[in-house]
# Entry
Amino acid sequence: METGIAKAIRIAGSQTALGNLLGLTPQAIQKWAAQGAVPGERCRDVESVLDGQVTRYELNPAVFGEAPAPVSQ
# Structure
């Protein structure tokens, strides 16, 4: 199964591209990829620059838990 950070890198196009969107180095993104999660304080930034295509719940489930179930109307 693809991790949230792997999905974010794929959507952005590369570690460098994701780093550029966030104002970070590719090495910082590589560190997140090696750890398998984005630090909790950066998850909303990633979620925002990728227009919600990857969520904070995917990026760091240890901090944010499971995504809430959608509310049906």
Summary: The radius of gyration is 12 Å. The chain has one domain: 4-64.
